[in-house]
Amino acid sequence: MRSILSAGLSGLLFGLGLAVSGMINPAKVLNFLDLAGSWDPSLALVMASALAVTAIGYRLVLRREAPVFEMRFQLPTATRLDARLLGGAALFGVGWGLAGLCPGPAITAAGLALPQVFVFLAAMLATIALYRWGTAGPLLRNRRA
């Protein structure tokens, strides 16, 4: 129960930070990405401050033997750049540039009840479902054999 409460409070804090920084406003994000037009550099400061907080936070938290509400840390183990990672990053970037939203801000922006946010969330969920169906299909077929 404490783990769920901690995750919920972390998500609430993250969403509040997104809202305060303006990252849930697709127009603000698109202006940040428009280097040749009406460029808005304010989100660069948001990203830089998030990177600084994360870098310091990782150093402090990883001094512990384990997280407060879990048995062990769950950190990524992959160290290589491969086609799957680069393709996913490119797809993420294209989607962010076209819509002005990425998953975290889109979920937070759902509270604004903007139609384009719901279209983005529906497309995101459909893509996740297609990916899971595509990757789970071969696994299920191999189990039956």
Automatic annotation (TrEMBL):
Ordered alphabetically, the record's keywords are:
Membrane, Transmembrane, Transmembrane helix
Pfam families (alphabetical): DUF6691
Query: Please, which domain of life does this record's source organism belong to?
Result: Bacteria
Listed InterPro entries:
DUF6691
**What are the transmembrane regions?**
43-62, 83-107, 113-134
Q: What is this protein called?
A: YeeE/YedE family protein
Q: Which organism is it from?
A: Marinicauda algicola
Q: What is the lineage of its organism?
A: Bacteria, Pseudomonadati, Pseudomonadota, Alphaproteobacteria, Maricaulales
